[in-house]
Amino acid sequence: MTKMFFSTDINMDALDIVKYYKARFQIEYLYRDAKQFTGLEHCQARSGNKLYFHFNTCLTSVSLCKILLRDDVDKSLQMPLSISDMKTEFRNRNMIYRIFSMYGFDHTLKKINQKDSIEYKIYRNLLNFGKIAA
Fold it and tell me: How far is it, in rounded angstroms, from Cα 69 to Cα 83?
C-alpha cells in the first residue's frame, strides 16, 4: 500500500513529514479521549487560570491513563487501549478499597499480589468487572 504525504514546506525532509503526521494523529486521539472521558468541554469557568487548569488536568489524566494501560496490557493480546476500561477499573479498584477498609481487611495482602495465586485471579476479575469485552 502506498501512502502519500504532502507539506507546504518544500524544504522539509520526507521523514519529518511522516513523523509530524503521526504526532498529529496522536494529538487528535488525545483530544478525542479527553472530550469523551474526562469532560474537556464541560468546564464553566471564565477565568483564564481556571480554564488553563481544567484543560491541563483533562489532557494530563488521559495521558497518564494511556501510560498505565501501555504498561499494564499484555503485549501478546494486541488489545486496543481503552480509556473507558481504565475508568471502569479505577472505579472497581476504589470500590474494592472502600469495602476492604470498611471491614478492616488489608488490600496489600501477599496472596492478592502473587500472580499465580487464585486470590490474584479473583481480584483481577473484580477489577475487570464491567469492562467492554473486545
Answer: 8
C-beta of residue 26 within 8 angstroms of C-beta of residue 47: no
Please list the pLDDT of the chain residue by residue as tens digits (134 residues): 888 888 888 898 989 988 888 888 888 888 988 998 889 999 999 999 999 999 999 999 988 888 877 765 555 454 556 788 888 888 998 998 898 889 888 767 777 777 788 888 888 888 888 887 65
Q: Is 65 exposed, middle or buried (0-12, 13-18, 19+ CB in 10 A)?
A: buried
Cell numbers describing residue 127 = 477489577
User: Could you tell me the CA-to-CA distances from 126 to 4, 96, 129 in Å, in that order?
Assistant: 46, 8, 5
Alpha carbon distance 25, 95 (integer Å): 35
Contact predicate 89/128, CB 8 Å: yes
Q: Where are the chain's structural domains?
A: 1-80, 82-134
pTM above 0.85, yes or no: no
